[in-house]
Design brief:
773 residues; elongated; 4 strands; 34 helices; mainly alpha; two-stranded parallel ribbon; nucleus
Length: 773
C-alpha cells in the first residue's frame, strides 16, 4: 500500500509538472520524423525517375537505337503491353483533350502555386492527362505548393521561446533537423501576398516580383517609402501595406541590438525613419478599413466581420502593426511624434478587440502615458481619448479592464503630489470620472469594490492602531482616491444629469458609503499635524454635496479644529513661509504653534464654513440651520479675548466676526422671505421650491463668498508667480554652480599640465647632471 501511494503521488507530480512538456516534445518529434520520411520518399522517387530517364538517354545514344513508340491521342493504355508502356518514349502533346483535363482535375486538390504554374505552361501541368496522372499531381504539389508550410520555417517568437524554455530539445532539433529552426522573415505575411495578388494588383510575372523583392531588401530609402505610399493611396495594395509594416517594425526595433541581425531593412537615414513612421501610422489604418470595413450595428455599436477570409488573412498584419506601435511608444521622446502614434491607435481599436492578450498590453501602455505626470497635457488627453474609445466600443470585459487600469494608473500617478504635479493629477481625476458614466451598471460594481477596499483599509487602521497602521490611510494615494470618487459621483449623480437621462443614476447609492468612509478618515488622527488632510477631504465632500443636493453634516468637523489646543493658545512668532494647504496633507512639525500656521488654519476654517453654509443659503430652514454654529463662534470669540489663556490673534478673530455677521444677515434675509409664504411646512413641494429661482450670488452670504473667491484667486496667482520666480532663480543658481565646477576642472587640468612640464624639466636636469658626471 505504501509503495502504491508513493507511485500514485509520483505519477500525479509527473502529470502536473512534466507531462505536458513531454507530450509536446513527442508530438514535435513525430511531426519531424513524418516530414523526414516524406522527404526521403520523394527523394527516392526522384532518384528512380532520374535513373530511368538517364537509361533511356543512354540507349538512345548507343549503337542500337531503340524503337520509339509514340502514343497517339486516341491510343489506349490497355492496348499496349507493360514492357511497351514503360520502355516506350512518349511524345509530350501540346494540348490534352478536355476529357483528360477533367480526369486530372479529379485526382486531388491542387494548391494555388500549382494552379499558377499550370497557367504559366510548366511541364508538370502538361502531364496531367496521362495515365500516370497521380505521379504528376504529387510532383506538382511538391514543387509548387505542397510543402509550403514546411519550407516556411519557424517564426522568430517561436524559435526564441523554444530556445529559452527547452534548450535540450532545441539542441536536439539543431542536430537532427536544422531546417525546422530556419527563420523566414516573411513567413507570417505569406497569405497576404496571395490575397493581395488576387484582389487589386492582378497577377504579375514572377521575374518582376523577384526583382521588386530584391530591390526592397536592404537599406530603407525614401524612394521605396514613396512608392509604397503611392500604391496604397491609389490601389490600397496589401502587398505595399505588408512591406510598410515590415519596415515600420524595423523602425520600432531600431535601438534593439538583439534584433538588428534579423531585420529585413536597415535604417540609417533619419528622413527615411520619419517618413516610414508617418506613412505607416496614417495609411495602414486606411488600407485595413478598405479591405475590412468597420460597420455599425442598429444599436450604434461598431464591429468588424472577424469571420471573413480577409480578416483572417490580415490578422497577423494587424497584430504585428499594433505590437510595433506599442514597442515604438516605449522609445519615443518627442511629444509631437508621441501624440501622432497614440492617435493612430484609435482607428485600429475595432480590429484589435479580437486579440485579448495584445489588447491588455495596449491598455496598460496607453494608461501609463495618461497617468504619467511628466507628459504634456496634449499627450495625456490623446491617451485618454484612446481609453474612452475602448470603453465605448468594447464589451463588458474590455470595459472592466480599462476601468481598473485607469484607477490603478490614477493611484500610482498620485503618489507624489506637489505644486508641479497637482494640475496633472486633477486632469486625471476629471477625465477618468467620465468613464464611469458610460456603463453605469459596470461602473457601480467597480466603484463599489474600490470604495469597499478603502473602507477595509480604514477599519484595519482603527482596529489595529499600532505600528503606524494609520499611514495606510494618511497618504496622498488614499486622499486622492476619496477625492476621485467624489468627482465621479458629483458628475453622474447631479439632478441635471438625471433629468437628461430620464432616470435616477445607479451610482447614487454609493454616496452614503463614500461619505461615511471620508468622515471616518477625517477623524482617524484628530491632531493639528493632519489639519491639512481634514481640509482636503472637506473640499471633496463639499463638491459632492453641491453637485447632488445632498445634506452632509460638516460644520462639526470644522468646529473641532477651532476648539483644538492649537487654535486656543497664543501663537509664537515665526519667519516661515505660508503653508500651501492645496499640496500638503500633513503640516511640518516646525509649523505647529506658530502664527503662520494658525493664520493659515483660520483662513481655511472661515473659507470652508462659508462654502458650506452658502450651499443652503436659499433654504427655508437656514436661520435654524445656522443658529448653533453662530452661537459656537460667538462663544469662541468671547473665550479668545480672555487675558490669561485667550488667543490674541486679531486676524483670525476679525475673520470669524465677519463670518458671523454674514450668517446672521443671511438668516434675517431668509426670515423676511419666508414671512410672506402661505404654505405649511408639510407641503414638501413648495418647501423645496422656496427661493429656487433666486440666484444664490445675490444673497448676503453668497455675495460674501463671491468676493472671497476672487481674493483667493488673485492670491493664488501671486503665489504661483512667486513660485515660478523661485524656480527660475534656483535653476540659474544651479547653472552657475555647474559653470563654476567646469571652470575649476579646467584649472585643475591646466595645473596638471604645469606639473607635467615641471616634472619634465626636472628629468631633463637629472639627465644633464648624469652626462656631466
Amino acid at each position: 500500500m505504501v509503495a502504491s501511494k508513493k507511485n500514485l503521488k509520483a505519477t500525479k507530480k509527473f502529470e502536473k509538472k512534466h507531462l505536458k512538456g513531454v507530450l509536446e516534445r513527442r508530438k514535435t518529434v513525430a511531426k519531424i520524423k513524418q516530414k523526414t520520411q516524406i522527404k526521403d520518399k520523394k527523394k527516392a522517387k526522384r532518384a528512380t525517375d532520374d535513373e530511368f530517364f538517364k537509361g533511356a538517354a543512354g540507349e538512345a545514344n548507343g549503337d542500337k537505337e531503340p524503337v520509339k513508340k509514340v502514343v497517339k491521342p486516341g491510343a489506349k493504355a490497355s492496348e499496349m503491353s507493360v514492357d511497351d508502356f514503360f520502355k516506350g518514349g512518349f511524345e509530350i502533346l501540346d494540348k490534352a483533350p478536355a476529357t483528360e483535363k477533367k480526369a486530372a482535375a479529379k485526382l486531388g486538390k491542387r494548391k494555388r502555386g500549382q494552379a499558377e504554374a499550370q497557367k504559366d505552361g510548366e511541364a508538370s501541368g502538361s502531364e496531367s492527362g496521362s495515365a500516370s496522372g497521380d505521379e504528376v499531381v504529387d510532383s506538382g504539389s511538391e514543387d509548387e505548393g505542397g510543402d509550403l508550410s514546411d519550407d516556411m520555417g519557424m517564426s522568430r517568437e517561436a524559435m526564441s521561446a523554444l530556445r529559452e524554455k527547452d534548450p535540450e530539445f532545441y539542441k536536439f532539433l539543431q542536430e537532427n533537423d536544422p531546417e525546422a529552426l530556419e527563420f523566414d522573415e516573411n513567413a507570417e505575411f505569406s497569405e497576404i501576398d496571395e490575397l493581395s495578388g488576387s484582389d487589386d494588383e492582378g497577377e504579375q510575372p514572377k521575374k518582376k516580383q523577384k526583382k521588386e523583392k530584391a530591390a526592397d531588401a536592404g537599406e530603407l530609402t525614401q524612394t521605396m517609402i514613396q512608392r509604397w505610399s503611392k500604391t496604397m493611396t491609389e490601389t490600397h495594395s496589401l502587398r505595399a501595406a505588408r512591406q510598410t509594416v515590415i519596415a515600420f517594425r524595423c523602425a520600432a526595433q531600431l535601438n534593439e541590438a538583439d534584433e538588428d541581425s534579423n531585420q529585413k531593412y536597415t535604417i540609417t537615414d533619419p528622413n527615411a525613419f520619419h517618413d516610414i513612421l508617418t506613412v505607416a501610422l496614417k495609411q495602414i489604418p486606411e488600407v485595413l478599413n478598405h479591405h475590412c470595413p468597420i460597420k455599425e450595428s442598429a444599436a450604434g455599436k461598431l464591429y468588424v466581420n472577424t469571420e471573413s477570409k480577409k480578416f483572417t488573412t490580415l490578422s497577423m498584419l494587424m497584430k504585428t502593426f499594433a505590437s510595433s506601435i506599442i514597442r515604438l511608444l516605449g522609445t519615443l521622446s518627442d511629444e509631437a511624434t508621441l501624440k501622432l502614434t497614440l492617435s493612430a491607435l484609435e482607428p485600429l481599436l475595432p480590429y484589435l478587440l479580437s486579440f485579448r492578450k495584445l489588447l491588455k498590453v495596449l491598455i496598460k501602455t496607453v494608461v501609463a502615458f495618461w497617468a504619467q505626470t511628466a507628459s504634456t497635457p496634449a499627450t495625456r488627453v490623446t491617451a485618454f481619448i484612446v481609453m474612452r474609445r475602448l470603453v465605448v466600443i468594447g464589451d463588458k470585459g474590455v470595459r472592466e479592464v480599462v476601468l481598473k487600469a485607469a484607477y490603478q494608473g490614477l493611484v500610482q500617478g498620485s503618489r507624489h503630489t506637489n505644486a508641479n504635479t497637482i494640475q496633472g493629477i486633477n486632469l486625471m481625476k476629471n477625465s477618468a470620472a467620465e468613464l464611469w458614466g458610460i456603463d453605469q451598471a459596470l461602473g457601480y460594481t467597480t466603484a463599489f469594490s474600490f470604495i469597499r477596499q478603502l473602507a477595509i483599509h480604514l477599519r484595519n487602521s482603527i482596529v489595529n492602531n499600532k505600528n503606524d497602521s494609520f499611514r495606510n490611510v494618511y497618504n496622498w494615494q488614499y486622499v486622492h482616491s476619496l477625492d476621485f470618487w467624489s468627482c465621479v459621483l458629483a458628475e453622474h449623480c447631479s439632478p441635471l444629469k438625471e433629468a437628461e437621462a430620464g432616470k435616477e443614476s445607479q451610482l447614487k447609492l454609493l454616496i452614503y458609503p463614500l461619505v461615511q468612509v471620508t468622515l471616518g478618515a477625517m477623524r482617524l488622527i484628530p491632531t493639528a499635524l493632519y489639519f491639512p488632510l481634514r481640509f482636503q477631504l472637506m473640499r471633496s465632500l463639499l463638491r459632492l454635496s453641491r453637485a447632488t443636493d445632498t445634506y452632509i453634516p460638516l460644520a462639526s468637523v470644522l468646529i473641532e479644529v477651532l476648539n483644538s489646543a492649537e487654535m486656543k493658545k497664543p501663537p509664537k512668532s515665526s519667519t516661515l513661509k505660508q503653508l500651501d494647504f492645496a499640496v500638503n496633507y500633513k503640516a511640518p512639525a516646525s509649523y505647529l504653534r506658530t502664527r503662520v500656521y494658525q493664520d493659515g488654519v483660520g483662513e481655511q476654517v472661515v473659507e470652508l464654513l462659508s462654502e458650506y453654509f452658502v450651499l443652503w443659503a436659499r433654504n427655508i430652514a437656514f436661520p435654524e440651520f445656522a443658529l448653533p454654529v453662530v452661537i459656537t463662534l460667538k462663544r469662541w470669540l468671547k473665550d479668545s479675548r480672555k487675558k490669561s489663556t485667550g488667543n490674541k490673534n486679531g486676524k483670525l478673530g476679525g475673520a470669524l466676526v465677519l463670518l458671523v455677521q454674514k450668517l446672521e444677515a443671511n438668516a434675517k434675509f431668509v426670515e423676511e422671505k419666508r414671512a410672506k409664504v402661505d404654505f405649511a411646512p408639510r407641503d414638501r413641494t413648495k418647501v423645496d421650491a422656496f427661493l429656487k429661482d433666486f440666484e444664490w450670488e445675490k444673497t448676503p452670504l453668497g455675495a460674501f463668498v463671491v468676493g472671497q473667491r476672487k481674493q483667493r484667486a488673485e492670491k493664488q496667482k501671486l503665489m504661483e508667480a512667486a513660485r515660478k520666480e523661485d524656480a527660475k532663480k534656483r535653476k540659474e543658481a544651479e547653472q552657475d554652480e555647474v559653470d563654476a565646477a567646469g571652470e575649476e576642472d579646467e584649472d585643475e587640468e591646466d595645473s596638471d599640465e604645469d606639473v607635467d612640464l615641471v616634472n619634465g624639466s626636472e628629468e631633463d636636469e637629472d639627465e644633464e647632471m648624469e652626462d656631466d658626471e
